[in-house]
Every structure is written in C-alpha cells, then in structure tokens.
Design goal:
The chain is α/β, with parallel strands linked by helices. It has two domains: about 220 residues, Rossmann fold (3-Layer(aba) Sandwich), CATH 3.40.50; about 100 residues, Rossmann fold (3-Layer(aba) Sandwich). The chain has twelve helices and ten strands. The protein has a six-stranded mixed beta sheet with strand order 1-2-10-7-8-9, sandwiched between helices. It has a four-stranded parallel beta sheet with strand order 5-4-3-6, sandwiched between helices. The radius of gyration is 19 Å and the shape is globular. The chain binds pyridoxal-5'-phosphate. Pyridoxal-5'-phosphate binds next to α4 and α8.
C-alpha cells in the first residue's frame, strides 16, 4: 500500500487534533561515534507538544474522539501514580476544555514530583487508591458523583480504543519516519522502541503494509505480559479497525523483557547509563523507566556487534521525561 492509501484508511477513524505531529527525526552522530555503532536517528516523539509531550498524545486523538460520542464534560481515568499517560490525558483534556479526575494507584507521597507534580499543575482533581480494586470502585463512585451533580462523565478505562489507537498512532509515525529518511535518501534497517506491544504493533503493521524489510525491535519496560500474543492481537484488532485484510503472527513479534531490570517502574543501572549517555552526547533527555531501558537495549546490541556501521537505526523517543525529577538522585 502507498502512504496515501494508508493515510486514507487512518482517516476513516474519528479523530481530534491534539498532538504536535510530524515530530523531528534527529541524527545522533555523537552517540553513534561514542558507541562505535550504526547510524542512529532519534524520532523525537517526546516533542508532541502538550504537557511535556510523549507517545500517548497521539493515541488520545482517537480515544478522546471516541469518547466525544457521549458528549462528556469530565474525563475520569485510573492509572499509576507516576503515569505518563495520566499527565498527557490531563493536558489533552485541558485543550479540549474537559475536566479531568485522576484516580492514581498508590499513596500521595510527601514529595510530589515528576508526572504527579505536572498532574497537579495542570489542574487535575487527583485521588489515590490503595489497589486496583479500590481504584475501580472509585472510578465508578466518582462518575456517579459527577452525574448526581449534573455532569457528564466518561471513564477512559472503559474506552475500548486504547490498544488500537496506540497502534494506529505508530503506524502513522512510521510513515513520518519513512518520509523523513527518504528525504535523506535513506531507508531504516531497524526500529527500536520502548513498547508493551501497542505502539510496536503499529510499526509492525506499517512494515507489512509498506512491504518494508526493517526489523522492529521492541523493548518492554515490564515483564507482566505475554508479548507475542498481546502484540499480534493488537496488530490484528488494528487491521480489522482499518478494514484491511492482512495478518500479523505471534512469531513475527520481536520484543524483549531483558532490560526490565528489577521490575516495572524501578530504574536499572543499564537504563541509567543510557539516560546519561544520551544526555551527555546529544542533549537528549530520556527517562529511567521506559526510554532509558529501551536505549540500554540498543546500546547492549551495539556492544554485541549486531550492526554494520552504515545500518540505519531509528530510536523512537516515546517521552516520559518528567520521571527524571522523581529519580533526581540518580543524576547527581
Ligand atoms: C515513555 C513511554 N514509553 C513507552 C510506553 C509504552 O507504550 P506502548 O506500550 O503503548 O507501546 C509508555 C507507556 O506505557 C511510556 O509512557
């Protein structure tokens, strides 16, 4: 399929304009030289504009468009205490003139930092739940409260679009990258990205639809999923949503949990080294929870000798930078 045909399929889905798109693709020459590695191009999806940016703003364009069917005045969402998704949701809702209620899993810390600090700055009504059961109950009771006082709540956790919207977003990002590389007369050999299978499903889909032969290497920040089945399911649901008739198989999925370290949400030495290296060679700020671990994977693969010097590696920077402030001691 051509870029135009793929874009026409994407345009069949309801969508709002929230994120800055066509984000820059920046060659990281110092980083490549320091690592003795391939050519590395960083897709700056940390620069999607709203509330310090990140990958979720692109999928919120589809998720919130879907939510608009209920004509809500308040969006209620339950997420983690330091969620990038929560921060970007509040920012997007502010742009759409919607109120946001966050129900975050965890306790309010004494020192409010990182994404949580930005949530407050953005004016979210922040609540805390001890665990997921309590979180679910609070989502429902807060929605009821909004209704009782004459409002129109939408619980974003019940919105069916999260997986598909993320994949569609990164299908589109792949088109942007291909065009940005084509302008330099280049083609990608590899994509590296922090993903639990949503965004990476979209890049795999792009590869198939375009008949491209790059490798999509995802690096997951958590070990809680069966990544091949999850990614293939999301890719195939996205294919159905776009009315296409191809299929993505589980054995095509390349996603590793090897860089999770001690666990989700806990920085790792390799990830922290990667954050420092990107900062000190390119002035690009990653985060220790997602993008730093993905970059640690890329760095490890370079050190293993997986690449030729003129291979073109696209590293997708999915955002998450406010976490550096939560983990301030790591950088001093
Ligand atoms: C900074 C960052 N990178 C990557 C991801 C993973 O994205 P996905 O699993 O939707 O592809 C997330 C969200 O969970 C994130 O916040």
């Amino acid at each position: 399929m051509s870029h135009q045909q793929i874009r026409e399929r994407i345009a069949t889905l309801p969508r709002l304009d929230i994120a800055l798109k066509n984000t820059p693709l920046e060659e990281a020459r110092n980083l490549s030289r320091t690592l003795g590695g391939p050519r590395i191009f960083v897709k700056r999806d940390d620069l999607t504009g709203v509330a310090l940016g990140g990958n979720k703003l692109r999928n919120l364009e589809f998720r919130l468009a879907h939510a608009m069917k209920d004509d809500p005045d308040t969006v209620i969402v339950g997420l983690d205490l330091q969620s990038n998704s929560a921060r970007q949701t509040v920012g997007a809702c502010n742009k759409l003139d919607l109120k946001t209620i966050l129900v975050l899993e965890g306790r309010r810390p004494n020192n409010v930092q990182g994404n949580l600090l930005v949530d407050y700055l953005l004016g979210a009504d922040v609540h805390f739940a001890a665990d997921q059961r309590e979180q679910r109950a609070m989502l429902d009771s807060l929605a009821e409260e909004v209704r009782t006082s004459g409002g129109r709540p939408h619980i974003l956790n019940d919105n069916p679009m999260f997986d598909v919207a993320s994949a569609v977003a990164y299908l589109e990002v792949t088109l942007e990258v291909m065009e940005q590389l084509e302008a330099r007369e280049l083609k990608p050999d590899y994509f590296y990205m922090s993903s639990s299978g949503k965004g990476s499903a979209g890049i795999m889909l792009a590869k198939k639809l375009l008949g491209a032969d790059f490798i999509m290497q995802a690096i997951c920040a958590t070990a809680e999923f069966d990544l091949p089945s999850r990614t293939a399911r999301i890719a195939n649901e996205t294919i159905a949503a776009l009315g296409l008739d191809i299929e993505v198989a589980e054995d095509e999925v390349i996603n590793t949990e090897a860089f999770v370290g001690k666990g989700y949400g806990i920085p790792s030495d390799a990830g922290d080294e990667a954050v420092r290296l990107f900062a000190r060679t390119e002035g690009i700020i990653l985060d220790p929870i997602y993008t730093g671990k993905a970059a640690a994977g890329l760095i490890a693969h370079i050190r293993e000798g997986r690449f030729e010097p003129d291979d073109v590696v696209v590293f997708v920077h999915t955002g998450g930078t406010p976490a550096i402030f939560k983990w301030n001691e790591l950088w001093i």
